[in-house]
Amino acid sequence: MKIKQKYTSRQIQIINNTIELIGTNGIQGLTIKKLSEKTGIVESAIYRHFKSKHILLDNTLNYLKEYVINIYRGIEKLDLSSSDKLKILYSKQLEAFAKNPSYIIVLLSDGIYKNNVILRKIIYSIMQEAKKNLSKIFKEGIKKGEIRNDIENDQMVFIFMASMRLIVTQWGLSDFGFDLKKKGEKLWNTLNHLLIK
Fold first, then answer.
1. Which domains, and CATH codes, for the chain?
2. 167-187: per-residue pLDDT in tens?
């Protein structure tokens, strides 16, 4: 994952290991001791990079937020039809989850941050930013006559995002028991039929 940000290579390593530990053991299983063992550095070194577990989680979610938003913004700027942009976006998101299954737990698990208002707000802001960028693609497509105009923009965005969430969540709950890319392509063809003129 390429993020143009303030993080050092060691901080990125710690963040990626944090994501993996949450994905494997849940947020309750994330301890600084386990993280230091996984990273291969002493616990005090973790604290030199992130002063507390809370700050580490905050940075981890903000790191993922930038990753998600970069995907959306990059695709939005492409000189392609709205249908092609949506297809690429769908494909790239599935590809990201397939390569990094732990993202499912960190980004999509309901209730994982229920006791932490700040972390919940970051997750919500990721969703809102994704909705905003996706909405731009749909609006552009409607204006160009590429996307049907008899369904409200908000509803199309909801259908797109909800279908993505459902297929990825099912994949995770099935212990990755089906080909996410293949099933995703089939679902995209359905969405394309429903939303694109």
1. 9-195 (1.10.357.10)
2. 999 999 999 999 999 999 999
